[in-house]
Design goal:
With about 220 residues, the protein is mainly β. It contains two helices and 17 strands. The protein has three domains: about 45 residues, no CATH class; about 35 residues, no CATH class; about 130 residues, Jelly Rolls (Sandwich). Helix content is about 10%, strand content about 45%. Strand 8 and strand 9 form a beta hairpin. The protein starts with 14 loop residues before the first helix and ends with a strand. The relative contact order is 0.17.
Length: about 220
Amino acid sequence: MIRETMAVRSRGVKKEYADEMNLQGVATQQEMEDAFSEHIDTEHTAEGLLPTPVEDNQILKSYDDNGTLKWKIVAADDPVEGLTVISLPYYWDDVRGKYLANQSIKINFYENGTGKRRRYMNYIPEIRSNRVPFKVQNNEEYCLVSAEYYTTDENSGSVMEIRDISDGVDTLATVDLGSNATDYFYIDTLNIDIKSGVWLAGRILSTSLDNPVLVLELRKVYTPA
C-alpha cells in the first residue's frame, strides 16, 4: 500500500527514477481520481474520446457505425454532411407587430392618357379593375406595406382610392398627396390589413391625372401555430 506522503522504490523502478519521485512527490490517490474524473468529463463521452474541431467552420457530427454511435469532424457548410438550415417563409415584422411573408407581391393600377378622372384604373391591360379586380382568396390575408405613386403631371390633395368591391364599395385607403403638388411619392411604412375575400380595385377621384400609376406592395400575413 502506498502512503499519501511517501514515494516508494520497487524492483521495477530504477534508482534515478525513485530519487526523482522522492524529490517531486507523488500524487495522492484522491488527486489522481479527481484528475481522471476531470479528464473524462471534459474529453470523453459514453462513446469515448471525442475528436476536436480545429477550424472555425468545423463541427462535431454523430453517425451510426453498425449500431455503434461514433463522432466525426465535418465542415458546417458541407452540402452533404453539414448543418441543415430550415428557412421559414415568414418573419416577425417589428414595425407592424405581425408575421409577414418574406416575399411580397406588387399590384399595378394604371391608366394611360391625359386628363383621366372619375374612373377605375386597370389592373389587367385594357380591363378596368372594377370588372376584374385583384382578388384575395378566402384562406389568405395580406398586409399593405408600401405604395408608390407617379404621374406625368403634378397634383395635390386626394387623388385616388383603393376600394374593396367584393360586396358594394368599401374604401380601404385614400391616396392623399397633401397640399404640395407632386408627381411622385413612395411610402413603405403602411400597415393596412387586406382581409380574406377582398376584391381590390383602384379608382381615380375628381382630380384630373395624366398617365397615373399606383403600385401596391402586399405581404401575406401568417399566423404560426
